[in-house]
Design goal:
The protein is mainly α. The chain has helices at residues 2-13, 26-55, 66-90, 110-139. α1 (2-13) packs antiparallel against α4, α2 packs across α3 and α3 (66-90) packs across α4 (110-139).
Length: 152
């Protein structure tokens, strides 16, 4: 959920970096951005399960460290590089605008890579806080940040 919500604005900000996006009808461009954000959410979910399989526990988000964060980010990066390459070279689903900086040896756009370097640590932190807060509310424990247990 947080992966989708944080990637929506990123996708809208990237619109000028893709050929034809700025001239698309408004609703078509909105749908394309939402579809891309949904794809990012699937990538995030896949990265979550890669870490869960590696750690042999699906609740790893409760207590994660740098290693889990690195594996999560690298998984997202690898999938993104593969998908961007497939879409821009093999299927030609989209094309980068001349203003999109690309990596010379891969041809992958820099913004999709920065997206998977900057957003995942924030996504993990928010998700972890949400997970811990939900557990505290379910157990009736003292909640962080002064929140009180909801009764009823």
């Amino acid at each position: 959920m947080f992966t989708f919500l944080l990637n929506v604005p990123w996708e809208f900000l990237q619109v000028p970096l893709y050929v034809g996006m700025t001239s698309m009808p408004h609703w078509t461009a909105v749908q394309a951005c939402m579809q891309a954000a949904a794809g990012d959410a699937v990538i995030g979910l896949t990265a979550y399960w890669v870490v869960a399989l590696w750690q042999r526990r699906r609740g790893w988000l409760r207590r994660y460290g740098h290693k889990e964060c690195v594996v999560f980010v690298l998984t997202g990066l690898l999938i993104t590089v593969g998908l961007e390459w497939h879409a821009t070279v093999i299927t030609l689903r989209w094309t980068y605008a001349p203003v999109m900086p690309t990596l010379p040896w891969l041809g992958t756009g820099l913004m999709p890579l920065l997206q998977w370097l900057t957003l995942p640590p924030l996504i993990l932190w928010i998700s972890s806080r949400h997970f811990i807060g939900t557990l505290a509310l379910m157990k009736g424990a003292d909640c962080p940040l002064g929140y009180t247990r909801v009764i009823g």
